[in-house]
Design goal:
The protein is of the alpha+beta class and 315 residues long. The chain folds into three domains: 12-70 and 207-235, 2-Layer Sandwich (Pseudouridine synthase), CATH 3.30.2350.10; 73-203, Pseudouridine synthase (2-Layer Sandwich), CATH 3.30.2350; 244-311, Roll (Archaeosine Trna-guanine Transglycosylase, Chain: A, domain 4), CATH 2.30.130.10. It has helices at residues 24-35, 65-69, 104-110, 135-140, 180-190, 216-220, 249-256, 265-274; strands at residues 12-18, 40-42, 51-58, 73-81, 83-85, 94-97, 116-120, 129-130, 133-134, 150-164, 167-174, 195-205, 208-209, 214-215, 232-233, 244-247, 261-262, 285-290, 295-302, 305-311. The strands form four sheets. Strands 1, 2, 3, 4, 7, 10, 11, 12, 13, 14 and 15 form an eleven-stranded mixed sheet that branches. Strands 16-18-19-20-17 form a five-stranded mixed sheet. It has a two-stranded antiparallel ribbon with strand order 5-6. A hairpin with a 2-residue loop joins strand 10 and strand 11 (167-174). The longest helix has 12 residues, at 24-35.
């Protein structure tokens, strides 16, 4: 006899306002317990120091995690000048000091050098894998971690305020793989000083916004309660910008079996309406649901067919 899966089949996204002092893994585990969900994951790690938007996927929503992780992210953070830390944030060990404190005009003049497509060496304390191990695990064990530079995109960054000579507050919008801690470290060096992140808050990731985030303590007060489900968002929340189409019952059955459906003229016309700028929609990802709004599959348009590559099953 098959073993009963632990937990309930809960499907959707929770926009969590992660508190400071816990890891993303701990936060996800807490949300999973609150909903008594069988399966959970998250879209984009937040360090223990960081607070703010942590998008937690439950059940079948975990199949849309890659789309959320690829989305742009926004942050508000504070740089502290004069100290380098091995973690590039205030939790690490001091590795150097400097008496230089940049002026506001100097900071603003340096920022354009760190916008657009830039090369960045990730912090040693990061989730990047080195020979199968997380870099932060190796660093915490005292091993020397050397990571290769990588190309990242910083769409926008601005200096918000300089509350005192030791600190500067910034806001940033960046693409996948960018590290705020590395950005501050490199900006400080360009300014002739040293620096690290002393406060960090993520204010959005894709379609998940700070204004919609629920504090963990609020959720904990709804442990195993129906009230918690008021904070459960649809699977499609992570698919911001992906065209959505409704399919018929027979087509839904075919798709859920992993079979393609023909790209009929009416479906093609609806895609053309959704993305008028797409001259050739071949390779386009489409989100398919029933007319009642129940998710069916994510499919790719190819060879005159919609071919499912992620199928949603709600057992």
């Amino acid at each position: 006899m098959a073993r009963r899966k632990k937990g309930n089949p809960v499907h959707g996204w929770v926009v969590l306002d992660k508190p400071q002092g816990i890891t993303s893994t701990q936060a996800v585990a807490a949300v999973r317990r609150i909903f008594d969900a069988r399966k959970a994951g998250h879209a984009g790690t937040l360090d223990p120091l960081a607070t703010g938007v942590l998008a937690v996927a439950l059940g079948e929503a975990t199949k849309t995690v890659p789309f959320a992780m690829d989305a742009d992210k926004t942050y508000r953070f504070t740089a502290q000048w004069g100290e380098a830390r091995d973690s590039d944030d205030s939790e690490g060990r001091t590795t150097g000091t400097s008496d230089v404190r940049p002026l506001r005009a100097q900071i603003e003049a340096a920022i354009p050098r760190f916008l657009g497509e830039i090369s960045q060496v990730p912090p040693a304390y990061s989730a990047i894998k080195v020979e199968g191990e997380r870099a932060y695990d190796l660093a915490r064990d005292g091993e020397a971690v050397t990571l290769e530079p990588r190309g990242v995109t910083i769409h926008e960054a601005r200096l918000v305020e300089t509350p005192d000579r030791d600190h500067a507050v910034f806001e940033m919008r960046c693409g996948k793989g960018a590290y705020v801690r590395a950005w501050v470290r490199d900006l400080a060096l360009a300014l002739g000083t040293l620096g690290h992140v002393s406060q960090l808050r993520r204010t959005s990731i894709g379609g998940f916004r700070e204004k919609d985030a629920v504090p963990l303590e609020t959720l904990r007060s709804f442990m195993h309660s129906p009230a918690a489900f008021e904070h459960l968002r649809p699977i499609s929340t992570a698919l911001d910008g992906i065209p959505a189409l409704a399919v018929t019952g027979p087509d839904a059955v075919r798709l859920r079996s992993g079979n393609p459906i023909l790209m009929r003229a009416n479906l093609f016309a609806r895609i053309a309406d959704a993305i008028p700028e797409a001259d050739d929609p071949t390779g386009l990802t489409v989100y398919l649901s029933t007319s009642e709004g129940e998710p069916v599959a994510l499919a790719e348009l190819a060879g005159g067919e919609l071919r499912p590559f992620r199928v949603f099953n709600f057992g």
